[in-house]
Each structure stands twice: as structure tokens, then as C-alpha cells.
């Protein structure tokens, strides 16, 4: 999935994950792809947007969900929990997670 996610009319929820990686891949790329594929099959998943890491190594991924229940279910998914643990022990120097309710959106397209 790439580009701007096609989300429904608000309200819906955005999970914003910002991270700074450790050096080396250590299986990160493969697991990241697998998590996007898995998330896309989960009930309540609406889409995902991700930026490439900038020169400072900051990565930003935003996933969209129809409800807080869907967000919680994804957080607790067994394979996602494996990736979360590996992130804490191997892949990330630091990360932040924000869950937001989207009440309004606006898009422009040529």
C-alpha cells in the first residue's frame, strides 16, 4: 500500500507511530511488510500511510481504523505482539505512539 489512504467520512481513528531505528535491518523490512499485510486483513482497518525515513532516521507510519475496538484488537494481535517485542529489543532506539480521533478531514487532488 502506498500513497494517501482512502478513508471514509469521519469519525474514524488514526494511530500515529513515529520511530528512530537502530542500525542494521535484522529482519525489520520483512516483518514490516508482513505487519502491513496482516493489518490490512483485520476487521476495522481502513488504510495506512508511511513515509521513508529522513536523514535523521525518523520514520512515520499512520494507520487508520474504524473504531477504538479495532485499534485495541490490532494492538493485541499475537503476531503484532511479536513484532512489538522485537521492536523494543532490536529494531528501535525510541518510538512514540499516538491514537487520535479524526473528526474532520479534507483532501485536494488535481
UniProtKB/TrEMBL annotation:
Could you tell me which InterPro entries the record lists for this protein? ABM_dom, Dimeric_a/b-barrel, Jasmonate_Hydroxylase-like
- The ABM domain covers 12-100
Instruction: Give the source's domain of life in one word.
Output: Bacteria
* GO-annotated molecular function: monooxygenase activity
Task: State the UniProt keywords alphabetically.
Answer: Monooxygenase, Oxidoreductase
* Protein name (Swiss-Prot/TrEMBL): Antibiotic biosynthesis monooxygenase
Source organism: Cohnella thailandensis
Q: What is the lineage of its organism?
A: Bacteria, Bacillati, Bacillota, Bacilli, Bacillales
